[in-house]
Write a structure and sequence with these properties.
It is a single chain. The chain is α+β, with helices and mostly antiparallel strands. It folds into two domains: 271 residues, FAD/NAD(P)-binding domain (3-Layer(bba) Sandwich), CATH 3.50.50; 147 residues, Elongation Factor Tu (Ef-tu), domain 3, CATH 2.40.30. The chain is 32% helix and 17% strand. The strands form four sheets. Strands 6-2-1-7-17-16 form a six-stranded mixed beta sheet, covered by helices on one side. The chain has a six-stranded antiparallel beta sheet with strand order 10-11-12-13-9-14. A three-stranded antiparallel beta sheet has the order 3-5-4. A hairpin with a 6-residue loop joins β12 and β13. α1 runs parallel beside α4, α1 packs parallel to α10 and α3 crosses α4. The longest helix has 23 residues.
């Protein structure tokens, strides 16, 4: 049996692994290597385009629960992430290049896996297929999908934060510390600003020139990836309650800064740092000018400037089953951000679920719908539950059904969600033999 996978991103790679390890012949089509996207820098599989962080692993976070669920389901990408992690406090962050190499090596180790560098421009497949071409799907394939589905595509913007060279950071001005002293204090390099410096920075930021956006409504910006300049325009203190919040951080003298920009390691060597929460659509020249107003970055070399690009997702509740299969054709599955799951690990989960279900459909098995108490299960329900205004969704505890008796302590309640979800996933995996 053969099942094809379109797209070598996070969802596609996870889907390919889940199929290959079940003995399926897998052919993956990835156009990078022949045709590049506006935001990818390499032709490597599972390249991380935005942040290098896969968010928290803590038991009181939804992202932590989702990772535990994926561990129970033998996720290749989660395993590779742990092999390639770099220090980031309580978060799981990775060395991008090492992560991509690890995923590629694991997939290519299968004799029944083949990678073809080719742009797919139609949905005329002779075998079942998982479409995981991502939010940067080529125009030709996007058109083919739209024609096949007969549904209106929806679009939103995503934005990428800049990366700076560690050597150019003024370490006399910056200091190492983590929020509330969690994790290794060297995980984050903090760039403090006084009130005067902050006010001047915000003034220049809101008046800086942005790059042109083509063809799409400029108001259509996904909140979780809000460009920093748009946040600043919402009010003078918005950034101080957002990515520049100083809460839980103490400087070299033990004092809390007025505002702070956190830098996180981009690689294991600590030679590159990204500006945490500083997704932006400013022109490259304006990024250099405005972000250099941050005292610790006055002489910083920008290794990668932030960019803003269109993410595209389908109206999944109208089109897909909870198993991420096309309602009108169970030989076609969709996975990744184009289904309306938002985030790296969420995309991995969607690829895993889509693979399990297209395999089940091809072999006469039952649909796999994970328990409603799990993040995987709720993402399945999110993409298949009809709503008037369908929007992308991150992992969050708000998706999960509440307990019968309210747990008043917030952290205890979150930990209880985690433990319940983990227990129910363990039971489901055991009973279904997944």
């Amino acid at each position: 049996m053969r099942i094809d996978v379109v797209g070598g991103g996070l969802a596609g790679c996870e889907a390919a692994y889940q199929l290959a390890k079940r003995g399926v012949e897998v052919v993956m089509y990835e156009m990078r290597g022949q045709k590049q996207t506006p935001c990818h820098k390499t032709d490597g599989l599972a390249e991380l385009v935005c942040s290098n962080s896969l968010k928290s692993e803590a038991e009181d976070t939804a992202s932590g629960l989702l990772k535990e669920e994926l561990r129970l389901l033998d996720s290749l990408l989660l395993r590779c992430a742990h092999e390639c992690r770099v220090p980031a406090g309580g978060a799981l962050a990775v060395d991008r290049e090492a992560f991509s190499d690890s995923v590629t090596k694991a997939l290519c180790a299968f004799d029944n896996f083949r990678l073809e560098r080719k742009e797919i421009t139609s949905l005329d497949f002779d075998h079942p297929v998982v479409i995981a071409s991502g939010p940067l799907t080529s125009d030709a394939l996007a058109q083919a999908i739209a024609e096949r589905l007969g549904a209106q595509y929806l679009g939103f913007y995503d934005a990428v934060a800049p990366i700076v060279d560690a050597d150019g950071i003024d370490t006399d001005s910056a200091f190492f510390a983590t929020r509330y002293d969690k994790g290794d204090p060297t995980d984050y390099l903090n760039c403090p600003l006084t009130k005067e410096e902050y006010d001047a920075f915000v003034t220049e930021l809101v008046n800086a020139k942005t790059a042109l956006l083509h063809d799409f409504d400029k108001r259509d910006v996904f909140e979780a990836c809000m460009p920093v300049e748009i946040m600043a325009k919402r009010g003078a203190d918005t950034l101080r309650y957002g990515p520049m919040r100083p809460v839980g951080i103490r400087d070299k003298e033990g004092k809390r800064p007025y505002a702070v920009v956190q830098l996180r390691k981009e690689n294991g060597q600590g030679t590159m740092y990204n500006l945490v929460g500083f997704q932006t659509n400013l022109t490259f020249g304006e990024q250099k000018r405005v972000f250099s107003m941050i005292p610790a970055l006055k002489n910083a070399e920008f290794l990668r400037y932030g960019v803003m690009h269109r993410n595209t997702f389908i109206n999944a509740p109208q089109l897909l089953t909870p198993g991420f299969l096309l309602k009108t054709d169970d030989k076609i599955a969709f996975a990744g951000q184009m289904t309306g799951v938002e985030g790296y690990v969420e995309s991995v989960a969607s690829g895993l679920v889509a693979a399990l279900n297209i395999h089940a459909a091809a072999t006469g098995g039952e649909e796999i719908l994970f328990p409603a108490t799990t993040i995987c299960g709720q993402l399945q329900r999110h993409i298949s539950t009809k709503t008037e205004d369908y929007q992308p969704m991150n992992a969050n505890f708000g998706l999960l059904p509440p307990f019968g008796e309210k747990i008043r302590d917030k952290k205890m309640r979150k930990v209880a969600y985690y433990k319940r979800g983990k227990q129910d996933m363990e039971r489901y995996v055991r009973d279904r033999g997944i």
